[in-house]
Write a structure and sequence with these properties.
Layout lengths: L16 H4 L1 H18 L2 H15 L22 H7 L3 H5 L7 H31 L5 H4 L4 H8 L4 H13 L7 H13 L3 E15 L5 E4 L5 E2 L8 H6 L1 H5 L3 E2 L4 E11 L3 H10 L6 E5 L5 H11 L3 E5 L18 E2 L29 E4 L2 H7 L23 E7 L1 E15 L4 E11 L10 H21 L6 E8 L7 H9 L1 H7 E6 L9 E2 L2 E2 L4 H12 L19 H6 L5 E3 L2 E2 L1 H5 L14 H6 L4 H19 L7 H11 L8 H25 L7 H12 L30 H9 L7 H35 L1
Parallel strand pairs: 4-8, 5-6, 6-7, 7-9, 12-13, 12-14, 14-17
Antiparallel strand pairs: 1-11, 2-3, 2-10, 5-10, 11-13, 15-18, 16-17
Helix pairs in contact: 2-6, 9-16, 16-23, 19-23, 24-25, 25-28, 26-28, 27-28
């Protein structure tokens, strides 16, 4: 918009003789022309930049005009300089003395008023232009702490609770497309860009038409998995729960054999039992927990067992929980569509015939059924000291187990939308939740997960609609098929693997965010732990209780699996848990319970915990998406490696020497490259881009090819918080205690050694690249 020129011939009635004077008209025209020239010059650009900053801070409606930021004109001939340099300046504007002082005063006053009005009018027009034009990219791409808080303060517990209840109402539908459509509709209405369904036709292992059964040979009694006698009445009362009490991708059939109690199925347990009994084609009574289920099943399979009755010991759960009659579901799928292992399940692809992923017949049963099998109806003593369930060694139990499942091709749906980044749109921060999948039950945790990601989108999009954008692209995903082995996220990851390997910066996991209400349990990659500590401490200062939070890198359940283990992407997860659960065995979360909708609201009736998780996760998302230098810590990875090598481990001297060199390289990288880059005066764009590329790929060096089933390929993650060493070394050492020279241990040592060496070479190569760039400039 430009200023309107005043025509010298247009004269309003009532003007004085001075305003009618041609000279004065010419002066006014010059003044207007000069003002337009100045508004087009760099000084006015500065005014726009400053005003854009104010607008981005959310005060555009009340911001005062900052007149100090308007710079003087820098044209070769400014308004006053040009007039003074003209040779006839004095003679041209010399006027005869006015007839009286009053006329002279009026003349000066009218000139002053005219100039003032034109000046104010110009400022108003410029301000109007500024407020209606897009913000400067450089300014709109920078967020400070105040803007983070402006976004996060709009997150309210009441909104999350309302969204949660709306989603729970859709849970009754057997078709998960109803849930998917609702999520897509919400995200689209909030303004998220290009929200799409991404569908994959995958092989699902579903329960049969009738529940599985366990029959005691001694008495002929038949029981359903929940411990209730077989019968039509029991099936009618809990038909849905009984059907979905199964192990997906287990072998199916009938097996009659002796039951052998293997406790948790640890290596020592199996060695002890095999010395006492013949275990070939027997049925193992196995407790869930302490080690990944897939790993323990692989040991039982190698030992020669034919079937497994899987249960959760009540002593491993908090006293407030009574799972004695609860049935549950597990999946034996390590990840993705079993019929297309390692490649996406797209139209026309080759499908392998894999109806089951184990030769074992696996059936989850309740603790009450276990008590009937071992003739021990009570699991706790009178003193309230829990007695673990055990089958006496001198007693023999023979049972017949029947497992019925059906394998079908079904469609799994992902919902994906994004906010495009401003300066680095090809770098992605992925935020993942999951939604209900038909033909399974997974409690109401999916509703919490979906409500939290939707709450953050609702808080973020108003700023985006007003012109702000993050530096990097934020991708929001709601995954399907999580209960069957994270199928939706695996297939999407395999489908876009080439792009994701190069472009994904971080993964924020929102799987099962509220599992208790006593303690906050953050899990993060080593490179992100320092950032998580900062956010947690800031949030803690606003709470009444601030217990010390232990941030660790441990294996977690959910769809982060593919991004951690196949892409080497740094990840973060915040979740509330019961402190007593953390004191018990790990990996109990591998079980999916048919939790009622009231359970989540009992743990968090006012949804304050949901609000805290949303704000913590949201602030981490914003900082990773907007910091010029990624907030990753290279030195923390080297320190984590050294900590993992502490203790009495065989043949560790070479590992320690390599870890020491890795730390030296990481320290140089941290001091020579990362610290200077954090100084705004030294932030050359090409240098920052190179640095961020190195930071986002640091963990890829720690992906190993061969790991035991259920173990993470990313060896920076531990099995649990009690284990502070590399998991593959712990497992190999436990297996080869009698044979110290076992090649399994040497293979594990070689994997770790190669990973550390690869990371050290990676940091050193990064330093060399920066040095060559500097030498080239000099």
């Amino acid at each position: 918009m430009a200023y309107q020129k005043v025509n010298a011939d247009q004269r309003a009635p009532g003007h004085s003789q001075y305003l009618d004077n041609d000279d004065l008209q010419t002066t006014a025209l010059d003044l207007e022309w000069d003002m337009e020239k100045e508004l087009e010059e760099p000084g006015f650009d500065q005014f726009q930049l400053d005003s854009a900053d104010n607008q981005n801070l959310g005060h555009s409606e009340t911001t005062d005009l900052n007149l100090d930021s308007i710079q003087p004109a820098t044209s070769p001939k400014g308004r006053f300089q040009r007039l003074q340099e003209e040779s006839d300046y004095i003679s041209h504007y010399t006027r005869s003395a006015p007839k009286n002082n009053r006329c002279n005063f009026c003349h000066l006053l009218k000139i002053l008023c005219t100039a003032t009005i034109l000046f104010i009018f110009g400022i108003l027009i410029g301000y109007y232009i500024h407020t209606n034009c897009p913000s400067d990219p450089l300014s709109s791409g920078r967020l400070d702490h105040q803007l983070y808080q402006e976004i996060l303060k709009t997150i309210q517990a009441g909104d999350i609770k309302k969204s949660f209840r709306n989603l729970v109402q859709l849970y009754k539908s057997e078709d998960d497309m109803e849930v998917s459509k609702e999520i897509k509709t919400q995200w689209t209405s909030l303004g998220l860009e290009d929200v799409q369904f991404v569908n994959y036709s995958v092989l699902l292992n579903l329960p049969g038409l009738s529940p599985s059964t366990v029959t005691l040979s001694s008495s002929g009694e038949c029981f359903h998995p929940d411990g209730q006698p077989c019968g039509e009445e029991a099936r009618k009362d809990r038909s849905q729960d009984l059907l979905y009490s199964y192990a997906a991708y287990s072998a199916k059939g009938t097996l009659k054999a002796e039951v052998i109690d293997v406790s948790y199925g640890m290596t020592d347990d199996l060695k002890r039992i095999r010395k006492m009994k013949n275990v070939t084609n027997r049925i193992a009574l196995l407790k869930l927990g302490k080690l990944p289920l897939l790993y323990k099943l692989s040991l039982l399979e190698k030992a020669g067992f034919g079937g497994v009755l899987l249960y959760i010991d009540p002593c491993d759960l908090p006293k407030t929980v009574n799972p004695s009659h609860d049935t549950f579901m597990v999946s034996l799928n390590p990840g993705g569509d079993p019929s297309t292992p390692g490649y996406p399940s797209v139209d026309g692809c080759f499908r392998q015939s894999r109806s089951n992923l184990s030769s074992l017949l696996v059936q989850p049963i309740s603790a009450s059924l276990v008590a009937k099998l071992i003739s021990s109806p009570k699991a706790r003593t009178k003193n309230d000291v829990c007695s673990p369930l055990e089958l006496p060694n001198n007693e023999i139990r023979v049972v017949s187990m029947q497992v019925q499942t059906v394998t079908k091709l079904k469609t799994v749906t992902n919902i994906v939308g994004y906010v495009m980044g401003l300066t680095s749109p090809d770098r992605y921060i992925i935020v993942g939740s999951h939604h209900h999948t038909a033909h399974s039950y997974n409690g109401q945790e999916w509703a919490s997960s979906t409500a939290i990601i939707t709450a953050f989108i609702r808080a973020l999009m108003p700023k985006v609609k007003r012109g702000w954008r993050p530096d990097r692209t934020i991708v929001f995903c709601s995954w399907g098929g999580t209960a069957f082995g994270n199928i939706g996220s695996y297939e999407w990851g395999e489908d876009f693997k080439t792009v994701l390997q190069k472009n994904v910066v971080a993964y924020i996991n929102l799987h099962s965010p509220v599992r208790g209400n006593s303690t906050l349990r953050p899990v993060a990659s080593p490179s992100l732990q320092q950032l998580v500590v900062e956010k947690n401490n800031f949030t803690c200062t606003r709470r009444t209780q601030c217990p010390e939070t232990n941030i660790s890198s441990i294996q977690i359940q959910g769809d982060a699996d593919y991004f951690i283990n196949h892409l080497g992407v740094p990840s973060v997860q915040f979740a509330y848990e019961d402190i007593r659960t953390l004191e018990g065995p790990s990996f109990l979360s591998e079980a999916f319970f048919p939790t009622q909708s009231t359970t989540v609201e009992e743990m968090d009736p006012f949804f304050n915990l949901h609000e805290t998780i949303t704000k913590l996760s949201g602030e981490v998302i914003l900082q990773i998406a907007n910091e010029p230098v990624l907030p990753f810590n290279a030195l923390d990875i080297a320190l984590e490696v050294q900590n993992n090598l502490k203790g009495d481990q065989p043949n560790s001297h070479q590992l320690l020497a390599m870890a020491s060199r890795l730390r030296e390289s990481a320290e140089l990288f941290q001091s020579d490259e990362m610290r200077p880059a954090n100084d705004p005066k030294e932030r050359a764009p090409i240098r920052i881009r190179m640095l961020n590329d190195i930071l986002q790929d640091m963990e890829k060096s720690f992906l190993v090819q061969q790991v035991p089933p259920g173990f993470y390929r990313n060896i920076l993650y531990h099995l649990d918080e009690q284990t502070s060493r590399f998991s593959i070394l712990v497992e190999a050492w436990e297996r080869c205690k009698p044979l110290v020279s076992d090649e399994t241990l040497h293979e594990a040592l070689s994997e770790v050694l190669n990973s550390i060496n690869s990371a050290q070479v990676y940091f050193k190569a990064g330093l060399d690249v920066f040095k060559s760039v500097l030498d080239g400039k000099n």
